[in-house]
Amino acid sequence: MRWMKDEPFYVLVLLLLILIIALRTPLDSDMWWHLRAGEETLTSGRVYKVDSLSYTRAGQSWVNHSWLSQIVMIGLFNLGGYKALSLWVGIAALGSMYFVYLQMEGHALLKAGITLFAAFVCSVVWSPRPQIFSLLLFALSGLILFRYKWLGKNQLVWFIPLFIVWSNLHGGYILGIILIGSMVVGEIYNQLVEGKSDTNLSWKQIKELIFWGCGGFAVAAVNPNGISMWLIPFQTVGVESLQNLIQEWASPDFHQPVQQLMLILLFGTFAAVGLSRRRLDGSDLASFSVFGILALTARRNFGPYAIVAAPILVRHLNDLFSSWKVSLVGQWKISQNLLEFQQKSEEGFNKTIQLIVNCTVVLLLIASAGYKWIAVTESSFIHEIEKQMFPFDAVVWLKEENPPGRMFNSYNWGGYLTWKLREYPVFVDGRTDLFGDEIITIWAQVMNGESHWEDVFTEWEVNVILIEKDQAITRELKNSGWIEKYQDHLSVIYTRGY
Question: What is the residue-wise DSSP string for 373-440?
């Protein structure tokens, strides 16, 4: 049928489906401290770079690499609350996957199907955090490189403004540099192994790519943090406790069905490359390998991996399906018969019905997206989810009772407490690059009830503890003079001398 071949219709349906997937309740453990930092920046009129949210790092300089994203976030929150944040995540996710779609070749149905599958893989990292900007700009970087290599359109100059904006939005700009580096390595391989080809970059083009890639890295310092932005990606990765203590930095747990999608994409691409007659391009090999390793190392890298892998998969599936079609036409004429049947069907298909069907599908998807957006951001629903994820009632108790002294808190709740419980500076929150191995390791040892935990509380003058009620340290506290003052389904509060 004719309307089934209309690529703009497919794209519209695809984008609406992605929007439906991406619209979600905007609650995340790190969202809160980003909102607070953005608020501090707007209130003071200067970028928030000296810690005032904790007592373990109070007064210490901090490379706030996401300051611009934080302004966007607090601006949206002030303008439209949770609804605005949810819509922001949805639109950013939609944009990133559209840039992925534009890097694909072949039939619209194939491209749309693989893009949608890649969206499901990416969805585990779609959250109201500056990271969503990195996924969007990473996909845009991939599109610029795709057009340079496969379409012969040189738009590398756009890397300069892109990396300036990116480095002010999020420290993940390094992903773009890695992507450019992967293409450089892949194209050098192409030249050394394959030689000159219509699809391989020349040595001159490789040099030009290196120039603009280095330029992109250099302008990352055009930032209130200056040249410190060159080091922040390495400083964050250098925190050894990340993989052991923080879920998003841990290796994937493939017992979880949602994370198994990454494996399907991984092995599906392997199969397509092996079965197709198309040579695996050096650039594809390099980028797929690098970002595949990153995804297997930490699940927070699922997004970049899916963005890289999806176009590669489509390139080889398109070649594979083309070869199958030729085989069928040549041996059994099945495809030719199907084509004739389709053409006859199109001739008798009423254009009015075609328009009605198209509009009905689109309107239903728009209505579904709107309904979900309203449902997941409705105030009572947000409140219930917040109480399930965070110590809402415990915070109410602390505000009412106001026990004196410093507070030791759960890492996962640190950001929430900086926003909701401003009376108590936190021991630690999600700013891993600020707290580093020193504080995070101390926190973990205390939570496990390891020796000298009492010395930590004495050193930091801790008199209030707010943690999950099932932590190992709770057994030690009950036998060490700490008094349980509050407990609910999620949290417990202990005090000393109150």
Answer: HHHHT-HHHHHHHHHHHS-HHHHHHHHHH--SSEEEE-TTTHHHHHHH-TTS-BS--S-HHHHHHHHH
Cα radius of gyration rounded to whole Å, the chain: 26
Residue 257 phi, psi (nearest 5): -55, -40
- Strand, helix or coil for residue 280: coil
Q: What would the pLDDT profile of 284-338 be if each residue is shown by its tens digit?
A: 999 999 999 999 998 999 999 999 999 999 999 998 887 775 454 444 444 455 4
User: How far is Cα 446 from Cα 469, in angstroms, rounded to an integer?
Assistant: 14
pLDDT in tens, 78-127: 999 999 999 999 999 999 999 999 999 898 999 999 999 999 999 999 99
**Which residues on neighbouring strands pair with residue 462, listed in sequence order?**
406
CA angle centred on 228, ends 225 and 231, rounded to 5°: 145
Q: Kindly give, in sequence order, each residue whose CB lies less than 8 Å from that of residue 483, ignoring residues fewer than 6 positions away.
A: 494, 495, 496, 498
Query: Encoding tokens for residue 59?
Result: 């007064």
For residues 217 and 211, the answer to whether their CB atoms sit within 8 Å is no
Domain-by-domain residue ranges, the chain?
Answer: 2-331, 390-495
Alpha helices in 102-202 (DSSP H): 108-122, 131-150, 159-169, 174-189
Return the closest-CA partner of residue 28 out of 424, 392, 433, 389.
389
How far apart CA 393 and CA 406 sit, in angstroms, is: 19
Sign for the CA dihedral angle at 174, 179, 181, 182 comes to: positive
Checking 336-343 for CB contacts under 8 A at 24+ apart, the result is 342/1
User: What is the CB neighbour count within 10 angstroms for residue 371?
Assistant: 12
